[in-house]
Every structure is written in C-alpha cells, then in structure tokens.
Amino acid sequence: MNTAATNVIERRLELTAPPERVWAALTDPVEIAQWFGDSAELDLRPGGHGYFGWTTHGRFAARVETVEPPSRLAWRWMHAPGADFDEAASTLVEWVLTPRDGGGTILEVRESGFKTEAHLEENTGGWKAELADLTAHLGT
Q: Which candidate among 47, 61, 93, 104 keeps its CA 20 to 30 Å from the CA of 69?
C-alpha cells in the first residue's frame, strides 16, 4: 500500500537467491552501488553513518538503525541531497528477509515517515526502479 493516508511504501519480492546472497546485495557498498545508485558507503552497525549516491540526483546521508544478519536491516536516510543527517527530516527504510520454502528469499521493504505527498510519490517511483535493478543484479 502506498497512499498518503498511510504515509508508507511497502513492497514484497520473491527472489530465487538465498537470504545470505540478498543480504550481501543490501549491505556491501560495492554491491549496493551496482543496483541502488552509483556509490554507497555504509557503517554496518546501529548508529553507523553512510550515504547513497546517484550521479544524477546527488548524495543522500544515511544512518543504520538495525542490523540482524541475514534477516533484518533498517536505515534512515535524508530526502534532500547534500544535507547533513537529521533524524527528524529522514525516512525509515526497513528490510525483512525470510527464507522461501524450496529455496530463495521473500524480501519485504517498507519506507515510512514521509513529510510530503511529493516525497512519497517520488520514492514510490524510485523504489519501483531500484527494486527492479536489485532483482536484475541478483539474477532472479
């Protein structure tokens, strides 16, 4: 669901890659830069800082919230490129990885805390493209 009333974007993917492989794609900066923007840095511990960068959109500050390999990851990130991290102005992105019966992974992603309808709409389209890139990156 992704309506302004809920102020949330939720997506669910069924991937053939195992959870450990999906986890690597979500947490290794080299891999992140192959499907989520063009560059990334992530200090993979609660409170760790980082960024996600796109040559066309800029660099977005982030802070890691939860790290539970290989099943749960959460980070907050800024909407404005180049802005210093500010929790009050960030949104929360949560990833849940569940093994599928017969192999593979169910990947659920949820982004919440949008301040404007425009930001919600921008990221709704953004996640469609980025998750398609993730699926292609994993070869699933």
A: 61
Bridge partners for 55 per DSSP: none
- Mean pLDDT for the stretch of residues 106-125: 96
Residue 66 lies in a domain: yes
CA-closest candidate to residue 61, choices 45, 73, 49: 49
Q: How many domains would you assign to the chain?
A: 1
Alpha carbon distance 23, 3 (integer Å): 28
Distance CA 118, CA 9 (A): 13
pLDDT digits over 70-96, tens only? 999 999 999 999 999 999 999 999 999
The pTM of the full predicted model, rounded to 2 decimals, is 0.93
* CB 35 within 8 Å of CB 134: yes
53: β partners: 39, 59
